[in-house]
Amino acid sequence: MDVALQVGELTESVSVTADAAVIETTTSSIGKVVDNKRIRELPLNTRNVYELIRLTPGVTGGIGNAHNAVGYSVNGVRGGLMDTLVDGVSASFPTVNGFHGISVFPSVDAVEEFKVQAQNYSAEFGRSLGSVLNLVYKSGTNEFHGSAYNFLRNSQLDANNYFNNARGIPLASFKRNQFGGVFSGPLKRDRTFFMTSFEALRQRSFRETLTSVPTALERGGDFSQTFAGPGRPITMYDPLNTRPEGNSVVRAVFPGNRIPAERFDPVARNIMRFYPTPNQAGLNGTNQQNFYNSGSAAVDTNNFDVRVDHNLSATQRLFGRYSYRRSFDGPPQLFPGELGVAEGRINNNDWGTSAVIDYTNTLTPTLVWTTRLGYSRNRFLFDNQGLGFVPSSLGLPAGIDSVVDRQMFPARRERIRD
I want to staple 58 with a disulfide (CB 3.0 to 4.6 A). Which of 75, 186, 320, 367 is the partner? Predict the structure, then answer.
């Protein structure tokens, strides 16, 4: 079969591209821009876009995923002296008890670029005593664009390490699912555009505890089988039975290392009910480390961003952005059932909100007017799992219920001193 091929028409096209200048010639500011290409293509293990600040010379440390904690330093300046701007508005919240962080944690796909300005920046960034991290969200365009993703890590797909296999220790359970998407486009062509993003994290990780709890004999006051080490029984002294001897005081010993029941403090007796009983043999015959349990720690995070840009005229532009982040970090319950109120577990809740409205007017080719209004807030809620427990129910004075700042199971510090 003969096939005839026709010569196509000759066409010409001209493509003009330009790279950003490597050397800044208009200001003396020293820093580094991390553009959208690097943000999209460089690997980020936990999708923490702030980790890319490490590309800047002089930067050590980073910004953690937990509550966006600022732990980096630029040229030796401490993180608490840095400022972070998101769409031109400060997103840094003041240091609280030594903790410093950022209220906005954008999705990687929603960021256009950011710049770390290490020093010699202009007066508009004068709020910082150290460096300035300046991040900008993407804007919508005349074309619809979108992306969706799901990053999965699961212990079912992981291999155990050699040493655990040799000791017969199974691989600990770990499940991490990070998913979301970004969608942008026009609301009205050439006039109004939008960009919205959502990202969520669901993580469950294995935790275990190996600790010491009172044995049945100890609960009855019998410490004759309580050892400080192999073959080294502890000695229980009677604090109410002492005698002077020379320049010191000698304490008497409880006979047989047994404390009489009538000497039990009623509050201590009630607290004892909130300890689990041993579920395994103690270590080396000492009854220590006689309780083992495991559980699952939870991390749940939701991030939401929306930005709308509107061209009022050829020289006037208006945009607004709203960001919301809610994070939950909950430890596992390692004491069984209702005994969990005595564990002292604390749920960490982090609610971050950020908003900005920006109006820009190009008055002349050399004069630009910008008015910007921003809002940023972080709320940290630390809820003890024992909240709501009435302290006086343990036998403490009833007046303590109205004096404490919150009703919860009392913190305990147990010690047996020989």
Answer: 75
